[in-house]
Amino acid sequence: MRTRFLFSFIFIFQTVVAQQQETYTSSEIFQQIKKLNVLGSVLYIGAHPDDENNSLLPYFAKEKLYRTAYLSLTRGDGGQNLIGDEQGIELGLIRTQELLAARRVDGAEQYFTRAYEFGFSKSAEEALRIWDKDKILSDVVWVIRNYQPDVIIKRFPPDKRAGHGHHAASAILADEAFTAAADPNRFPEQFKYGVKPWQAKRILWNTYNFGGNNTTSEDQLKIDIGGYNSLIGKSYGELGGEARTMHKSQGEGRPERKGQSFEYFATTGGAPLQKNLMDGVITNWNRMEDGKPIGVLIGEITATYKLESPELSVPKLVRLYSALKSLPESSWKNQKLKEAQQIIEAASGLFVEATSSQPEVVQGENLKVDFFINKRNDVDAELKRISIQNFDSSFMFKLNTNQNFSFDKVLPVADDKKISQPYWLEYPLHGGNFEVKDQAVIGNAWNDPSFEIKTTISIDGEDFTILRPVQYRYIDAVKGDTYQPIPVLPKIEVRYNRDNYISMNNQPVTVMVNEKSNDANLSANNELIQHFSGKWKMENDLLHRIALTSNQKNKSFNFVPQSGNANTSEQVEASVKYGDEIYNSYTKTIAYDHIPVITYFPMAKSNLLKLDIKIAGKKVGYMAGAGDKVPEALEQMGYTVTFLHEQDLREDYLKQFDAIITGIRAYNIYDFLTTKNDVLVDYVKNGGNLIVQYLKSNQVGQQKIKAGPYSFSVSSGSRVTEEDAPVTFLLPQHPVLNFPNKISSADFEGWIQERSTYQAQDLDEHFETPLAMHDTGETENKGSLAIAKFGKGNFVYASLVFFRQLPAGIPGAYRLMANLIALAKNN
User: Fold this and answer.
1) How far, in Å, CA of 98 to CA of 590, rounded?
2) 3-state class (DSSP) for residue 509
3) How many beta carbons lie within 10 A of that of residue 173, not counting itself?
4) Quick check: helix, strand or coil at residue 463?
5) Is 286 helix (H, G, I), strand (E, B) or coil?
6) What residues are paired with 557 via a beta bridge?
7) For 644, which of 10, 286, 357, 648 could close a Cys bridge (C-beta 3.0–4.6 Å)?
């Protein structure tokens, strides 16, 4: 039942500096009208964010006018971060939004599977086993059945030419899904959600020539994608460079290329190619029953379109929309109705938005929403209805040209409104894939907005329902008019103030739990509960009944390790019981300028580390690299950590430190580390320990890196990716394995994701290599840890992935790092 509300309408005249809502130029509208006449679709499949061919996607979407999409199996969670210290799931959140930013440039759509990028994998067999092949295959089939592509394109081949296991696995899954999607006996449980079997015309491999690997040949289909689009004012190489540069967390800034650029394609399944990608596919309205008149009408609209007055085409566009509605049900009917409505809105100059001055809202509280409409072109339009959640109002209101119409409404938010957790994080990660219980959202790039208005506007006699998210709007002194998503927060939050709590040599540790009420009216008692094993004892009671107010409450608890094995790590979890509800998470935001602010809700958990550890030396200088949490771990161990900058690289300043550590990739970021290598070498010569965490390459810009007193290089292809790979002690008497802590194979237990990356090679004879390790089926590699004495001090290159192990609370990583810092001075 709809309730009719009466409002006092306010007409205001205002200037809006910038809008996040996408707007279109008249030439872009014309291009979209032309696209209405094209009924062809392409699905591109790869393993990660940045695997897509960024120049090819805009060529398909904006030159050939195909419906175009990229399916990335993973969200890039296991990669490395060049712009911050986020790792794992947080990095996947960033890279998801970077892909969406790239799609806004190239005009393609974005999809994902539930696969988690668990780290570098050398074999497709390993990747498919960890991901659970059938589960991820079902996701690819689901996307194909929903999207219904005419042509599927793989980025990689299903073998070693793909470069590594994830790449090859993406091709294997694409090939199998091409067939399985058409088979009614494969994944039949999907059919109850409305999809049907779908057979794409063919599946292709987009061959390539990069990294010294040329898989192209002149007998393959060859397409020049380097053309210039005068309606856009850019070439597809320029659009590709712009899109690629959105992968900022990977340092993927690329030139915007001009001129010819050829892509090659080989058929790996389905109908063979002859002359073009869509051979045998009808890509106009003749493919639809009763579709021919639609094509004729679109031709009339394009022939009479006036670039200076797009609104003159609105009556014919509305007639086209009405004709589309009368077609038999099909995915193309629905797609073209959506496209036609977007064009009609754009040609009408229609601007509809809903914003709030609140950056967030709490379950059970109120959200004040400001509604705004402006019809900026002279078309016949009438506002008929606005609805959002529990608000629904009818109107009979003619929209005047370029007249602002606005009003506000305070909306109550339900107590049980879902918090804005990204849908794939609602349940704990299981091994190599996320658990998603709602089949309908699998494949989606992101959640639907927490709040969305539905506005019904009649244009030239046809009703259109326009959906817009409610966004937080504010004026930034530098950025101007700024829009961000509005997250829904839980009533109560709970978190630990550290990721790791370290008990050094059986000493008690003080654990701090932070409880916070987001509801100002919350005053009833509640219970804080902590879950941990019998290896620890809490001096306070297990249950703590407290009065929770809107202020944050910090509670301290002393945890005492019990007898048993030393060098252990385990998790402690906290939750708050309020009434019948359990709250066990907290709000965390990730903010970068090139993507929307990300809000998610990690579980309240931390690691309790019981370490039998000694340290020698106290003061550490740290040169931050590409983002890691090693300094925090060092401070937990008892070191005094000082962050270093270029101006600090002076002999008189550096001599105070027992060790200097450079963060991951620091030498690839800062050229001054190379130009001032002699200062660092003098520091070593005079008795200091210089520990260089891994380099990604041997270059910084156009310059060869100089690190330490003796020559060595690193190999991007030399890694030990099996986190449980056996470790051989080549020099068991070496100080790094004995002082001040005796290192054994037990110290390499429990490692996560990988052992070592970008290992050292071509080592000068002065280097010693105490450790050797290798992945299954490979030869032993000694490049994970290289140590050279020089003067009174020591130089270390460590490709062991301390930046992952220390934040994860791996005891052996702490003990080995302590030994590196403690390397003794030489006589």
Assistant:
1) 13
2) strand
3) 29
4) strand
5) helix
6) 511
7) 648
| Tokens 């326009």 sit on residue | 466
Confidence of residue 18 (pLDDT cuts 50, 70, 90): very low
Token pair listed for 820: 């590196």
Q: Tens digit of pLDDT for each residue in 589-627?
A: 999 999 999 999 999 999 999 999 999 999 999 999 987
Q: What is the pLDDT of residue 646?
A: 97
Between the CA of residue 592 and those of 202, 484, 537, what are the distances in Å?
40, 12, 41
- The DSSP bridge partners found for residue 452 are 469
Provide the residue type at 142 as one letter. Answer: W
Give me the count of residues in the chain. Answer: 827
CA distance 263 to 196: 32
**102 membership: H or E segment, kind and range:** helix 89-106
For residue 87, count CB atoms less than 10 angstroms from its CB and return exposed for 0-12, middle for 13-18, buried for 19 or more: buried
Q: Please state, in angstroms and rounded to a whole number, the distance separating the CA atoms of residues 155 and 57.
A: 12
Please report, for residues 3, 7, 325, 409, 454, the alpha-carbon distance to residue 393 in angstroms, rounded to integers and kept in the order given.
6, 10, 26, 11, 11
> What residues contact residue 541 under an 8 Å CB cut-off, 6+ apart?
none
Quick one: tokens of 680?
């660092």
507 Cβ neighbours under 8 A, 6+ residues apart: none
Phi, psi of 20 (to 5 degrees): -75, -30
Half-sphere exposure at residue 376, Cβ-oriented, CA atoms within 13 angstroms: 13
pTM attached to this predicted model: 0.91
Quote the mean pLDDT of the chain. 93
- For 211-275, give the secondary structure using H, E and C: CCEECCCCCCEEEECCCEECCCCEEHHHHHHHHHCCCHHHCCCCCCCCCCCEEEEEEEEECCCCC
